[in-house]
Amino acid sequence: MSRQLEFDIFRYNPQDKGSVPHMQTFVLDETENMTLFIALNRLREEQDPGLTFDFCCRAGICGACAMVINGRPGLACQTKTVDLPSQITLMPLPVFKLIGDLSVDTGVWFREMYQTTESWIHTSKIFDPDAIEERMDNEVAEQIYELERCIECGCCVSACGTARLRDDFLGAASLNRVARFVVDPRDQRTDRDYFEIIGNDEGIFGCMGLLGCEDVCPKKLPLQNQLGFLRRKMGITAIKEIFRK
Ligand code: SF4
Ligand code: SF4
Ligand code: FES
Known about the structure:
245 residues; 7 strands; alpha+beta; Ubiquitin-like (UB roll); 2 domains; 4Fe-4S; binds iron/sulfur cluster
């Protein structure tokens, strides 16, 4: 016999002056292979057309459906109800700007962070559209590819104690992005250049190293390794700077 699921869902429309944040309960019969994506769509179609949440790919690729599921950030489209108790609480991701109910704006946050970290390849080479593509060592290419798998869902930022305490903290996804350029041989930035950006409390030294970020990352990115790598690199750069003076 199928279970009856009880959803406690956060409701609030910041655009509506009369709206008050509250939890609303919905009941739904569980079906085979039901994901939270399916459940939320059914709730919207059958019970409340005003329920606001984001989805795009339904395949764990776009990162739009991240929300707090029973207290833990995760992707709704990749979460099966069978893996959850019958009582399910859904909240929007903290840290990001709330659009309404379960929908948050992660885009503005990521754009600002990537601007701060200058998240593009810095090179003095002039682009030549006729030149033959340059080869890259396979091992380095795979290392970069591994770090490029971030889908910008925001789960790591929402699980981060430092990001909750200070809104200027870059967060694990942005620091992982910096690590991606550090290993890229095309980027001509030096350790001192990176130190200028992340060698501070808003960057790598603000990280408390408790690794909530890696625990919740739906793409299983090696955030622990990258944060450790950057911390060592920036620590050594700081010591070199002291002796340079
Ligand atoms: S390890 Fe650092 S970045 Fe990750 S959750 Fe903890 S404080 Fe945030
Ligand atoms: S590092 Fe992981 S949790 Fe963080 S934004 Fe990227 S995919 Fe999401
Ligand atoms: S809808 Fe794209 S990751 Fe869930």
